[in-house]
Amino acid sequence: MQIPKITIPFDKLDRHLYLIIPAAGIGSRMGISDSKQFLKIDGVPVLARTLLAFSEFSEKSGVTIHAVIVTGTENINRARDLAEEYKIGFVEKIVEGGATRQDSVACGITALSALERAPKPSEPVFIHDGARCMVDQQTLAACYAGGISYDVCVAATPCKNTIKMAKTVDSSLKEPETASSENRRPTTTVVDHTLDRSTLYEVQTPQVFHYDTLLLVSSEAKEKGISATDDTALAEALGISVHLIPCSYGNIKITTPEDAALAEFMLKSRKI
């Protein structure tokens, strides 16, 4: 299954883009005590690289960006200082997040409504991970075009690995009788079946919504008690179609030390 590419001349698109950047990662899987948003990749903090990618997109496309950063209370001033240091003028608000990513995005939506120029109903809103700093210009352009065409869309890549659906089974009856009770495992995980890789996609960010659709999804999910770690999964749960937008495998999120090393390598490769 191939994702169709969307091509819309930029001169026919609306020129405003709204951006929510969840940036509250604590860096536990990075093995660092500081927030991973401020980890330096080739000398530049992760969050700054993310903002600079959008700054480049704005300059090249002529699209006006209105951004809200959602982060922890302790990092609000740091994020503001970082935006000033790297001359990112489109960051209009920096607000405190919630207990979960879904809560933090909801805080970002509230902040958008309070901007001097609040989004119009059909204008696109990007939700993009602050730690996904390697996003390329082609992906941003494709997602922006998709955000004009569709109520909901998301950057995605075809799955390269074979994916197994797992299940947990009671293994106590399968343990040898000679095994001591303390060494016997009551359950084990086995393969239930193998999924068809040709239909599987890994979703990334940006995840893009028309503003009115985002308001609907957020309010309905809260009212119905629907929770998810992925913004577009809320739309799916409410029966709203989510369109896939082709993007780069290089659009990685900095989560582990291996991710940071890969990002460093990618940046050095771009300079060669």
Helix-strand blueprint:
Blueprint: E1 16-22, E2 40-41, E3 44-45, H1 46-61, E4 64-71, H2 76-85, E5 91-96, H3 101-113, E6 124-127, H4 137-149, E7 152-158, E8 164-170, E9 187-194, E10 201-210, H5 211-224, H6 231-237, E11 243-246, H7 257-271
Parallel strand pairs: 1-4, 1-6, 4-5, 7-11
Antiparallel strand pairs: 2-3, 6-10, 7-10, 8-9
Kindly describe this structure:
The chain has helices at residues 46-61, 76-85, 101-113, 137-149, 211-224, 231-237, 257-271, and strands spanning 16-22, 40-41, 44-45, 64-71, 91-96, 124-127, 152-158, 164-170, 187-194, 201-210, 243-246. The chain has 272 residues and is an alpha/beta fold. The protein has two domains: 10-156 and 202-271, Spore Coat Polysaccharide Biosynthesis Protein SpsA, Chain A, CATH 3.90.550.10; 164-194, no CATH class. The chain has a seven-stranded mixed β-sheet with strand order 5-4-1-6-10-7-11, sandwiched between helices. The longest helix has 16 residues, at 46-61. The radius of gyration is 21 Å and the shape is globular. The mean pLDDT is 90.
- As an assembly, this protein is single chain
Supply the CATH superfamily name of the largest domain. Spore Coat Polysaccharide Biosynthesis Protein SpsA, Chain A
Number of helical elements:
7
Q: What is the end-to-end distance?
A: 34 Å
